[in-house]
Amino acid sequence: MGARKRISADKRKEAKKSQNFAILRNVPTSPRKMRLVVDMIRGMEVFRALGVLKFSNKEAAARVEKLLRSAIANWEQKNEKKAEAGQLFVSSISVDCATTLRRMRPAPQGRGYRIRKRSNHVTLFVDTLSTNDSQN
Q: Does the N terminus or the C terminus of the chain have fewer Cβ atoms within 10 A?
């Protein structure tokens, strides 16, 4: 690794240390379905978001709820205090495409139809309200 690349990698690592996040990789749900769930909680206070996810009918909501609990636990671990209501919020959340499994399904007249089994990665950042206000 060259010097410039190492320096920029070190800067990225230092920036990540100050952020509180959780990543969920290779979720066997299509990104489009996951984005419907993620859009419900973007920018919300974390305990309100947990309530929204708990009572959602979507299958992906259970996975996002577990990811949100993990992000809260990561924040508590770094800051060495318990999260209180109204203190934390979902600062950003994104869904990216992951690998797609390609399968073939028998079709009439000797043809084969493609089936794409999609998966995704979800990245969730939590932050305190005071940190967000000082940046604006």
A: C
Q: CA dihedral in degrees (72, 46, 48, 53; nearest 10)?
A: -70
3-class state of residue 99 by DSSP: coil
**Predicted TM-score (pTM) of this structure:** 0.86
* CA–CA separation, 24 and 11 (whole Å): 23
Mean pLDDT of 56-65: 97
Going by the DSSP 8-state scheme, the letter that residue 58 receives in this structure is -
Residues 6+ positions from 33 with CB-CB distance below 8 Å? 58, 59, 60
Q: Is 43 left (phi over 0), alpha (psi -120 to 50) or beta?
A: left
Domains of the chain (ranges; CATH) run 20-135 (3.90.470.10)
Q: How far apart are the C-alpha atoms of 69 and 49, rounded to whole Å?
A: 10
At 60, which helix (H) or strand (E)?
helix 60-79
Give the per-residue pLDDT at 130: 72
Beta strand ranges found along the chain (DSSP E): 20-27, 88-97, 101-106, 112-117, 120-128
